[in-house]
Amino acid sequence: MSKRTLIIGAGGVGNVVAFKCAMNSDTFGEITLASRTLSKCDQIAKNVKDRVGVEIKTASVDADSVVELVELFNRVKPDVVINVALPYQDLTIMDACVECGVDYLDTANYEHPDTAKFEYKEQWARDEAFKKAKIMGLLGSGFDPGVTNVFCAYAQKHYFDEIHTIDILDCNAGDHGYPFATNFNPEINLREVSANGRYWENGEWIETKPMEIMQVWDYPEVGEKDSYLLYHEEMESLVKHIKGLKRIRFFMTFGESYLTHMKCLENVGMLGIKEVEHKGMKIVPMEFLSTLLPDPATLGERTKGKTNIGIYAKGLKDGKEKTIYIYQVSDHEECYKEVMSQAVSYTTGVPAMIGAKLMLEGKWKADGVYNMEEFNPDPFMEELMVQGLPWKIRED
Ligand code: NDP
């Protein structure tokens, strides 16, 4: 029977998911793209129709309202809902999936609106409800989280008896030509970067000051880059699921101009997430800053350069020490040529589509709420190769 797919969120990632689902329409069947702003969905649907020749339906929805979501689900009758809207709508989309018995996938962690804190607790707490409703929830099916989790599972399955340390390395060497802009949602990006760093060692989380730890890593096809230790969400699930792990850290590259602007904005209070009074109006500085900054969706056509994201793992195989780096390199301009989005949206949207494809095909299927590394990594790794994110491995 033909399937139905509902994508919620018409940002940069939603655009890529819509394109890629359309390119795999045999699996995704009837595709509907819904978001708060209908005109954005219509524009994406028009681009998909022009380039891929596949018709996408569109709808407007306020995903903060379970009632609106349930109405939409009853109309569309989706087999899977791909949530690429913002992560902090109180997980209404998960709740609507439980109410309507529909499988669910997202690309991000729940973020508390009032504190710069993100964690899986709230999503994991829905596991029981998902099991009862006999539906599946796949969490964090983007690149990081997402592909990085699958890389870890793949390393564990094929290369190690025990993995002792993992460094997740996220390098974006793209240049959009602006003195300062963020490649995805500015609020999420700046909150992530300005928060304290954290890594996990010997069973405990160790906190660092923002940007306190810097290391220079040499990224294949990109070169050496200053890389800063941050907390990142996939570590929370990986420490539960990777055998023998003693330490896991996450590093992201930042250019000097980005860091100087960010420090300055932070010093003057523009990264604040609490309301302030301005001429009788209440505003949140970070939201106002978001309004001023270039819309990430418009950066695509001006961004040049490459991304390299991977996992550097050390451990034991047959009693001997072993080191591998599994990585993926994307080119911003190539991504834009294919789907009119730069590589950050591309590398998130393609894995979201692949996760949903494996769910619809029954290759990844279980009742309850899961992280990516809990499933067999092989079919996902095979799909990456053919869907636009080919990966490589360097051993020892
Ligand atoms: P954007 O902010 O560009 O887009 C989000 C979209 O969701 C917008 O179209 C927006 O509305 C829509 N939306 C937001 N709130 C609601 C709501 N209440 N009701 C309906 N629609 C809503 O984000 P991105 O496309 O850059 O990112 C999408 C997701 O992917 C985010 O959750 C982000 O954290 C995650 N991400 C994950 C990565 C990974 O590697 N795992 C990397 C990058 C991003 P409107 O229609 O008004 O525009």
Summarize the structure.
The chain is of the alpha/beta class and 396 residues long. Helix content is 37%, strand content 28%.
What brief labels describe this structure?
15 helices, single chain, alpha/beta, 396 residues, binds NADPH dihydro-nicotinamide-adenine-dinucleotide phosphate
SSE order and pairing:
Blueprint: E1 4-8, H1 12-23, H2 25-28, E2 30-35, H3 38-52, E3 57-60, H4 66-76, E4 80-83, H5 92-100, E5 103-106, E6 110-111, E7 118-119, H6 121-124, H7 127-132, E8 136-139, H8 147-158, E9 162-172, H9 186-194, E10 197-201, E11 204-208, E12 214-219, E13 223-229, H10 234-241, E14 247-253, H11 256-267, E15 276-278, E16 281-283, H12 285-292, E17 306-317, E18 320-331, H13 332-339, H14 343-360, E19 368-371, H15 377-386, E20 391-395
Parallel strand pairs: 1-2, 1-4, 2-3, 4-5, 5-8, 8-19, 9-14
Antiparallel strand pairs: 6-7, 9-17, 10-11, 10-14, 12-13, 13-14, 15-16, 17-18, 18-20
Helix pairs in contact: 1-3, 1-14, 4-5, 8-15, 14-15
Bound molecules: NADPH dihydro-nicotinamide-adenine-dinucleotide phosphate.
